[in-house]
Write a structure and sequence with these properties.
This protein is mainly β and 254 residues long. The chain contains one helix and 16 strands.
Length: 254
């Protein structure tokens, strides 16, 4: 599937529209929606599935990915009631997705979903091995009381999220402190040099077409990396907008 990227005009308010599929798709799980790549050569059924997604995505400017990123996500309550009056398996996410050449990947951020429909978003991590989804908190070894899958950052705050890759091992941080890691042994040969990063807000609405859709409102700020790269391109699909975009963050709403 082709992706539309719009080169950033620093400091400009942006209202972008175009065809952009994020690296991830989703279906429901008991705790979080399960992300799955949307394949090339979209069929009619997968096109319908893709239509249920709305997103606002920032792409890193680097030709090779950073071995660490630190950034701040604004935390706010997310409504998931759609036009049917049901929460179904909808979700609202703010996250960063990181992949290496072998198709290994991980994600980190916050999510509201059917298991957490109107409360503040929950911290999460995921891993992928050679393009196959391993699960939420898969391989995660906790080293603090801030545990993905249960910890809910306070609303109205903009805590720092991040990762660091060292010798094939991935450390995750929250509030500037390590909270746990995924060991090198989780991926054959460890996690390798990063080839892609995306930072985005995403909503999945299981019953599209109505005027009431799940909330996707938030912001990313203070984006910084080990390579000095920045957010340089953005993609978005209607009805959402990206505003106040700079090289270090953006605001998304809809």
């Amino acid at each position: 599937m082709n992706r539309t990227r719009t080169r950033l005009t620093v400091g400009a308010g942006i209202a972008l529209a175009g065809l952009l599929l994020p690296a991830l798709g989703a279906s429901a799980s008991t705790q979080h929606p399960v992300h799955e790549p949307i394949p090339a050569g979209v069929t009619s059924s997968s096109a319908i599935q893709a239509h249920r997604y709305s997103w606002a995505t920032g792409f890193d400017s680097g030709s090779s990915g950073p071995n660490w990123i630190h950034e701040n996500f604004f935390i706010r309550s997310q409504s998931l009631i759609d036009r049917t009056g049901s929460i179904e398996d909808n979700h609202s996410i703010t996250e960063t997705y990181v992949r290496d050449k072998a198709g290994n990947a991980f994600e980190f951020g916050v999510s509201s979903d059917g298991a957490n429909p109107t409360m503040r978003p929950t911290l999460f991590t995921t891993t992928w091995t050679a393009g196959k989804f391993d699960g939420y908190e898969a391989g995660f070894v906790s080293t603090s009381s801030v545990k993905p899958g249960s910890f809910k950052p306070p609303t109205g705050t903009s805590p720092e999220f991040g990762y660091t890759i060292t010798g094939g091992k991935v450390w995750f941080t929250y509030g500037g402190k390590n909270i746990g890691y995924v060991s090198k042994s989780h991926w054959p040969g460890g996690f390798r040099a990063v080839t892609e990063t995306q930072t985005y807000g995403e909503v999945y609405n299981n019953s599209p077409g109505g005027s009431r859709i799940p909330t996707m409102n938030g912001s990313v700020s203070h984006y910084r990396t080990s390579t000095g790269s920045h957010l340089a391109w953005y993609g978005v699909n209607s009805p959402y907008r990206i505003t106040h975009a700079t090289g270090t963050g953006f605001t998304f709403s809809g």
